[in-house]
Write a structure and sequence with these properties.
DNA polymerase, domain 1, Dna Ligase, domain 1, 5-stranded mixed β-sheet, 5-stranded antiparallel β-sheet, 13 strands, 41% helix
C-alpha cells in the first residue's frame, strides 16, 4: 500500500487558515529566487507545481496566497499520520513527511480486505487531522505508488495482478518513476509513449536510452518490482537548503542559515528514531556551480549540537579555502540513516545533556511554536 497525502504542506496551511479553504495557496520562498514546495489543487489548475520557481508560479496563478513553510508544524501532523500507519502494520517505510509504503500482507484478512483497510486509514487520517490522503494498493511498491496517483485527490485505487495490463498499459511513460522530461523526449522519438510500448520494446530502442538498465525499465513497465517494504530505509537521506534572494558572502549570515537548517534536520531524524552516519553541506555559486563537502559520523549521531558543530566545521573550512566567495544557495543533509540503538556509557555526559535539551526544545516548539525558544549559536570556526 502507498499512502500519499494530498498537497500536504498547502493542505495543512488551509486547515490552520480556514479563510483560505477554496483559495489557491503556494507554500515556499516568496523572494525572487523562491521555489514552490507545495501547491494547492486550486493553484495546480492554473499550472503551478511544486519545484517550480515561485516567480513562474505567480505568473500562472497571480491570485495565489504565498506562505513560507512551517516544517515543525508539518512534522507534528506527520507524526499523527504515521502513528495511524503503525496501528495497522509495523512494516512502514516512510518516504517523506507525507507519504509512506505499508506492507499489509500479514494483516489480510485479519484486518479486512485491502480496500477495507485503505478506507479505514483514510477515515482515521481525516478524523484525526482534517486532511485527505490518496491510497494505492498493489502487489508491490511500484504498482502501489502508481495506483495512488491515479485518482488524486482523496483517491483510492487497487491494482490486482489480473488487471495489471488493463491499468498500466495505457499510462504515459512519464508516470513511471525514473523517466524525466529529457528521457521522455528520447523515448517518444523511438515510438515509446505508453507503458505498453516500453514493456514490449526491443533492446535496439531501449539500450541507447537506458544502457544496462534497459531490461529493468522494461520490467517496471510490466509492473514487476521485487523490493520489499523497508529495504531502502537505511539509505535514506534528509536535507534542507536555502536559496537566497541575493547572493550572500557574509560568513556570519551563512552560519546563521546553516545552524537553523541543521536544527530542523536534527529534529526530523530524532522524531523518527534515526541516527546519521554522514553529514554533508552543499554550496551553489552565482554561476550555478554546485559543490559539496561531507564528513563521516562515528559513532552515528542525531543530536542538534553535534550536527551543528560538524556542519559549521565543513562550512568554515570551505569558506577558508574560498575567501570572498558569495553563495546563491546553501544546504545541509545527513545520510546513512539507521535506527538509534546507541546507549550512553556516561549518562551524565555532554551527549546526554544535549539530547535532554533537544527534547525540551521540541516540547516547547510543539506547544508554542519554533520561535518561542531557540538555541544560542556557538561562534563560527
Amino acid at each position: 500500500m502507498h499512502v500519499d497525502m494530498d498537497a500536504f504542506y498547502a493542505s495543512v496551511e488551509k486547515l490552520d487558515n480556514p479563510e483560505l479553504k477554496n483559495e489557491p495557496v503556494l507554500v515556499g520562498g516568496a523572494g525572487p529566487r523562491g521555489v514552490v514546495a507545495a501547491a494547492s489543487y486550486e493553484a495546480r489548475k492554473h499550472g503551478a507545481r511544486s519545484a517550480m520557481p515561485m516567480r513562474r508560479a505567480l505568473q500562472l496563478c497571480p491570485n495565489a496566497t504565498v506562505i513560507r513553510p512551517r516544517i515543525s508544524r508539518y512534522q507534528q501532523v506527520s507524526a499523527v499520520i504515521f502513528s495511524i500507519f503503525r496501528e495497522i502494520t509495523p512494516i512502514v517505510e516512510g518516504l517523506s513527511l507525507d507519504e509512506a509504503f505499508l506492507d499489509i500482507s500479514d494483516r489480510v484478512p485479519a484486518h479486512g480486505q485491502p480496500l477495507q483497510i485503505a478506507r479505514r486509514i483514510k477515515e482515521r487520517i481525516l478524523a484525526d487531522t482534517g486532511l485527505t490522503a490518496s491510497v494505492g494498493i498493489g502487489p508491490n511498491k511500484l504498482v502501489a505508488k502508481i495506483a495512488s496517483d491515479l485518482e488524486k485527490p482523496d483517491g483510492l485505487c487497487e491494482v490486482r495482478p489480473e488487471n495489471f495490463r488493463k491499468v498500466l498499459d495505457p499510462l504515459p511513460i512519464e508516470a513511471l518513476f525514473g523517466i524525466g522530461p529529457k528521457t521522455a523526449v528520447r523515448l517518444h522519438r523511438a515510438g515509446v509513449k505508453k507503458f505498453r510500448d516500453l514493456r514490449t520494446a526491443d533492446d535496439a530502442s531501449l539500450v541507447p536510452v537506458f544502457g544496462r538498465y534497459a531490461q529493468r525499465m522494461r520490467e517496471r513497465a510490466a509492473g514487476i518490482d521485487r523490493r520489499p517494504v523497508g529495504e531502502d530505509a537505511q539509505d535514506k537521506s534528509v536535507s534542507a537548503e536555502e536559496t537566497f534572494d541575493q547572493d550572500i558572502g557574509d560568513r556570519n549570515k551563512l552560519h546563521h542559515y546553516l545552524m537553523h537548517m541543521t536544527e530542523r534536520i536534527s529534529k526530523n531524524i530524532q522524531r523518527k528514531g534515526w541516527v546519521a552516519s554522514q553529514l554533508n553541506i552543499k554550496v551553489r555559486l552565482p554561476d550555478f556551480t554546485t559543490l559539496s563537502r561531507q564528513k563521516s559520523l562515528q559513532p552515528p549521531a542525531n543530536g542538534c549540537r553535534e550536527l551543528q558543530l560538524i556542519a559549521a566545521e565543513l562550512l568554515g573550512d570551505w569558506l577558508d579555502a574560498h575567501p570572498g566567495a558569495e553563495l546563491r544557495l546553501l544546504g545541509v543533509g545527513v545520510s546513512g540513516l539507521g535506527e538509534d540503538r546507541q546507549l550512553d556509557l556516561f549518562p551524565e555526559g555532554k551527549g546526554a545533556k544535549n539530547r535532554k535539551l533537544d527534547r525540551l526544545l521540541d516540547q516547547v516548539a510543539d506547544r508554542f511554536g519554533d520561535a518561542a525558544l531557540q538555541r544560542g549559536q556557538h561562534k563560527i570556526p
